[in-house]
C-alpha cells in the first residue's frame, strides 16, 4: 500500500516540467512530503524515487545531506517548528538561557516534539537575524529580541 497520497504524488509530478532534470525535483519533493507528513519515511523515499525514476539511495543521499528532514515516525515534527538560535551573536545575548527556558516551558529537549504534537523545539547555529539577537525561527519567520516572556507568548499563540 502506498504511503503517499495520490494528491501529493500528483503535486510532485506537476513539478517535473519546471525543472531541467527529474533529479532536480528531489529536494522540492522531499520538502513537500515532509511538510505534509511531518517526516519522510523509508517507504516515502522509495515512492519519491519511483516518481523521479531514481534509485532510492539517490533520494536518501539528498535527504540525509540536509539535517533538516526527520526520517522516523517517532521523530515526526510537530505542527510548528521552532528553532532557537545559539550562534555567537545570540549566545552573547542569552541564547543558552533562552534554550533552557524553552525546554523547561515545553517539557522537551531540543530535537523533540511536545506531547500535544504542536511544537518541535530545535536549535540552530545562525538564522541570519543577528541584529535581533537572541532570535528564534518559527517555521520560516524570524522572531527577534526574544525574551523568556516573548517565547512564552509565542508558544501560547501556537497552542491556541
Ligand atoms: S547568531 Fe543568532 S541569528 Fe545569527
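^ Assign residues to that structure.
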Amino acid at each position: 500500500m502506498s504511503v503517499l497520497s495520490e494528491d501529493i504524488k500528483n503535486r510532485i509530478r506537476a513539478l517535473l516540467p519546471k525543472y531541467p532534470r527529474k533529479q532536480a525535483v528531489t529536494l522540492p519533493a522531499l520538502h513537500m512530503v515532509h511538510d505534509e507528513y511531518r517526516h519522510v519515511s523509508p517507504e516515502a523515499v522509495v515512492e519519491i524515487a519511483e516518481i523521479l525514476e531514481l534509485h532510492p539511495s539517490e533520494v536518501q543521499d539528498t535527504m540525509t545531506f540536509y539535517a533538516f528532514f526527520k526520517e522516523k515516525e517517532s521523530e515526526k515534527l510537530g505542527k510548528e517548528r521552532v528553532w532557537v538560535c545559539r550562534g555567537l551573536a545570540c549566545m552573547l545575548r542569552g541564547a543558552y538561557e533562552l534554550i533552557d527556558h524553552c525546554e523547561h516551558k515545553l517539557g522537551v529537549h531540543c530535537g523533540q516534539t511536545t506531547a500535544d504534537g504542536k511544537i518541535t523545539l530545535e536549535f540552530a547555529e545562525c538564522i541570519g537575524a543577528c541584529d535581533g539577537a537572541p532570535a528564534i525561527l518559527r517555521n520560516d519567520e524570524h522572531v527577534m529580541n526574544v525574551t523568556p516572556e516573548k517565547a512564552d507568548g509565542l508558544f501560547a499563540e501556537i497552542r491556541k
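Helices lie at 6-15, 26-37, 42-52, 56-65, 88-92, 95-106, 148-159.
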